[in-house]
Amino acid sequence: MRLLIIEDEPDLLDSLAQALREEGYAVDTAEDGMDGLDKALTWDYNAIILDGMLPRLDGWAVLERLRLRKSTPVIMLTARDGSRDRVRGLDHGADDYIVKPFDLAELFARLRAVIRRTGTQDSTRIKIDNIQIDTAARLVHLDGAMISLTAREYALVEYLAVHRGRLITRTTLYEHLFDENESTLSNLLDVHVSNVRKKLGHDFIQTRRGHGYCIA
Ligand code: CA
């Protein structure tokens, strides 16, 4: 899952990006509205966290322009007393909003919810043979036993499982699992795939040589 955070407060941007990376998301960042809109239109993010007050182009204008072309889920960050801002955000096509200062756990939960609502999943549980994936709790069970995955391994499993039956190219996986700062490490994906196979069985992820990966 790849996210974009558009936020001009450097400390908040850094801490948010780091916390989300620890949760296993690939995270791109933008510090003003123009750069944010540019990235939002260029990449297919799973969700965007968008601050309202931004330099160059404010959050509502970013949202308005984005919605002309894309329905990427957007969570807006708004000020405590900004009820008009929240209404404006929802009117412009925000999927949810969260009031600053916020609890990280609440933001994570809302993120999972907007991603789930716009995704192809009907429920939070995906069952593939003897493997069960709970995307709300971010847990994977094999034959009923919980399997410990790193955040990045989990993200790989979840992405392939949500799109099961479809061939996912290496490029697509890279775009969803790694952010703009990491894309040069070309064997990183293979390392994660190999580790997931050790934990969940060699046949769980199939390689289509030269094309990509697939969960049948
Ligand atoms: Ca701001």
Tell me, what's the shape? Answer: elongated
Please compute the radius of gyration using only Cα atoms: 18 Å
Q: How would you sum up the major sheet?
A: 5 strands, parallel
- H and E string: EHEHEHEHEHEEEEHEHHEE
Q: How large a portion of the residues is in β-strands, by DSSP E?
A: 15-25%
- The CATH architecture designation of the largest domain is 3-Layer(aba) Sandwich
Would you kindly provide a written description of the structure presented here, covering whatever features stand out?
The mean pLDDT is 89. The protein is elongated and about 50 Å long. β4, α4 and β5 form a beta-alpha-beta unit. It has two domains: 116 residues, Response regulator (Rossmann fold, 3-Layer(aba) Sandwich), CATH 3.40.50.2300; 90 residues, Orthogonal Bundle (Arc Repressor Mutant, subunit A), CATH 1.10.10.10. α2 packs parallel to α3 and α6 packs across α8. It is built from eight helices and twelve strands. A five-stranded parallel sheet has the order 2-1-3-4-5, sandwiched between helices. The chain has a four-stranded antiparallel sheet with strand order 6-7-8-9, with helices on one face. With 216 residues, the protein is of the alpha/beta class. Bound molecules: calcium ion. The site of calcium ion has 5 residues, from loops.
